[in-house]
Task: inverse folding
């Protein structure tokens, strides 16, 4: 059955006005999964106007009532988790269990944001004289334009919209053109939860740059929150300068994993496989360089290859699938290029390394989960984000050496370390130039954690109370009593 989607503007579902329709393909089969109204600048302007009209009412709503609305959205997402998960798997490819977990995680983010709504306290600051007072009043920044990627097409939406609404902002969201249906399912949840018209608007499009121009030039839009590639993030930061808009940018990553000789190797191999092959490696936090101490590299690589070889590849809708298709053929080509370059320069293939052909895979964009040993810093895979199911294993000799190599990247999102030596863990974690460090398998997913990076991976945090702070201004109230 083919789906059809429309933009959601001012509480109304809108058909194509100046952009016609665009197709969304199922990456497991290459067939058209659905068609969506292609929003253009006119729809983007209408969405911004609707969000601006809705702002005074939404920010003026008492916090417990805003919280109730966010909880209602979470309840709809939870109730419809199975159905939304199927939609997500059809348009994005990930295994159904991962899609369902993502919908439930999206609901968790909305619930967390609902709770934070009640805790926007402001501050009282000691003044310099008996007759004066200083208060800091939290206020929503205003209308927010949010731009999201395709790899986590629902949780990325909730990570932005949840805290923005909690702060009292209204939102115009532009989802990835590859995965608009998950975002539109979120719009349906907002409609069913009876969010006031214009509080959340969703404009799918194939012309992201044109819509961004509208957002950047609209004086009502006071904040732009972006998750996606570093290339596009830099363009948006530059474009934000003209109207001095606030920005949060969650960009690419190139995560190192440090496996020290005192690590529990079996746990480390299982943890690295989990982090690497989740979402078929299409995650900004996905391990890209797995540095293993020379004394244990052979044992570790064997364990990792064994775990990897047993991951079933297939359509995300099929029972038991652990590795679904990549988002499109270009993504598979990138993995192939990284594998080929590494093998040409002397790396050794330990498992995978190919595109499964024929049968169920005939028209989909599949790549087998792959482990390469003997990878070195000069190889392309050690510098560029692969964004696919490729685990490259490198060797190190000393703590100082591996720290320097791990930090030698323009990115700074996530790093992982495995060790049972407490002193080494703390010293290494402190020296890693990354926004998030996982120790012995810690995960970055829960809504109470402030997710985000440093250096070329961007700035801003999503999750925790820090996430809401990015949608607030503090008005400085200076009062003379007499
Ligand atoms: P992308 O930058 O191509 O697209 C992201 C979004 O930007 C999409 O909605 C797209 O339509 C839009 N876009 C594309 N060109 C644009 C332009 N010129 N102007 C305005 N908007 C534009 O990234 P992607 O391929 O969708 O996502 C993968 C990238 O996202 C990876 O680099 C990954 O590391 C990164 N990512 C980062 C995080 C994080 O939290 N740091 C999370 C997920 C993904």
Result:
């Amino acid at each position: 059955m083919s789906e059809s989607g429309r933009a959601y503007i001012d509480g109304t579902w809108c058909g194509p006005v100046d952009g016609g329709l665009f197709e969304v393909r199922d990456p497991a089969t290459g067939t058209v999964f659905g068609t969506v109204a292609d929003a253009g600048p006119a729809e983007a302007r209408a969405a911004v106007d609707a969000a601006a009209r809705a702002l005074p009412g939404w920010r003026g709503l008492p916090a417990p009532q805003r919280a109730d609305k966010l909880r209602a959205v979470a309840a709809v997402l939870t109730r419809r988790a199975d159905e939304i998960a199927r939609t997500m798997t059809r348009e994005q490819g990930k295994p159904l269990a991962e899609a369902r977990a993502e919908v439930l995680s999206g609901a968790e983010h909305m619930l967390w944001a609902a709770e934070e709504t009640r805790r926007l306290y402001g501050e009282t600051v000691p003044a310099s004289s008996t007759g004066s007072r200083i208060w800091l009043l939290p206020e929503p920044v205003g209308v927010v334009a949010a731009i999201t990627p395709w790899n986590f097409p629902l949780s990325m939406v909730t990570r932005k919209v949840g805290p923005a609404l909690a702060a009292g902002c209204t939102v115009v969201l532009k989802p990835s053109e590859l995965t608009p249906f998950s975002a539109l399912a979120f719009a349906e949840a907002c409609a069913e939860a009876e969010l006031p018209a214009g509080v959340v608007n969703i404009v799918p499009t194939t012309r992201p740059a044109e819509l961004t121009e509208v957002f950047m030039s609209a004086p009502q839009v006071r904040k732009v929150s972006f998750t996606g590639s570093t290339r596009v993030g830099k363009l948006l930061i530059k474009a934000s300068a003209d109207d001095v808009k606030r920005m949060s940018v969650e960009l690419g990553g190139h995560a190192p994993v440090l496996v020290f000789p005192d690590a529990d190797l079996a746990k480390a191999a299982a943890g690295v496989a989990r982090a690497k092959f989740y979402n078929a490696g299409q995650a900004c936090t996905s391990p890209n360089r797995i540095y293993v101490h020379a004394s244990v590299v052979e044992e570790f690589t064997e364990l990792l290859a064994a775990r990897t070889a047993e991951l079933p590849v297939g359509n995300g809708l099929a029972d038991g699938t652990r590795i679904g298709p990549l988002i499109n053929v270009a993504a598979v080509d990138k993995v192939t290029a990284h594998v080929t370059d590494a093998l040409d320069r002397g790396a050794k293939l330990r498992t995978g390394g190919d595109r499964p052909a024929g049968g169920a895979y005939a028209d989909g964009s599949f790549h087998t989960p792959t482990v390469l040993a003997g990878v070195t810093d000069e190889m392309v895979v050690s510098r560029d984000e692969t964004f696919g199911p490729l685990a490259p294993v490198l060797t190190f000799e000393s703590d100082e050496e591996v720290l320097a190599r791990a930090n030698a990247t323009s990115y700074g999102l996530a790093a992982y370390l495995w060790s049972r030596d407490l002193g080494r863990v703390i010293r290494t974690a402190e020296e890693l130039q990354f926004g998030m460090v996982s120790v012995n398998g810690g995960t970055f997913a829960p809504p109470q954690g402030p997710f985000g990076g440093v250096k070329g991976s961007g700035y801003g945090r999503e999750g925790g109370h820090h996430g809401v702070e990015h949608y607030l201004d503090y008005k400085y109230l200076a009062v003379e009593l007499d």
Observations:
- The chain has a mean pLDDT of 96.
